[in-house]
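The pair is quoted verbatim as follows:
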Amino acid sequence: MKNLKGNNNKIVAEHGRLLQFACAIFIFLLMTGCVASTQNIDMNADKGKAVMGVDYRDFQKAASDAVSSMLQSGAVDKKGGGRYVLAISRIVNDTMQRIDTDQLIKKIRIELLQSGKVVVTTAVSADGAEDKMAMQARELRDSKEFNQKTVAKQGQMIAPELSLSGKIIQQNVKVSSSTQQVEYYFQLSLTDINTGLAFWEGETVIGKRGSNKSVSW
């Protein structure tokens, strides 16, 4: 009888382990089956839902608005022809998000370069040279290891004429007990470095309204 009870206990225990294993497999399959499949996004025609934070569509709009305004105002039309040399100053992120402001500035730079009105210097900026190689390459002067005819000469760099600075501001407004509104202000200034006067200033405002449960950071 003792042996019979022992065998029965072993069988019950084994059945319990099998049942737990089966449940674990079922839960795993259920969870993996609920995961949405990955899809490519058409970045030029994204019909995805808006988000409360800043996304690439907002940067595209702010950059496009800024460049269009600059070109229409004539601020980058250089007298006598040619292209202005633009340096990038400081773009302040005054939002609740960790925004890489280069996302905005890079888009503006690309569009301005393509317009043929402006060329951007990477040797000068508010935070130091963007491309440090321009100065490091000049340290090769007088080196016997390099053909001095191929080393950059003195007085070849072009100083910037214009400076682009700006700020991104976020304001959260409570609309109701269940709804909030988030406003983003993209403010930019184009300054004549020689005189310190702003040739152009622009602002793009992007507003979003949604649930208070949605986060904007």
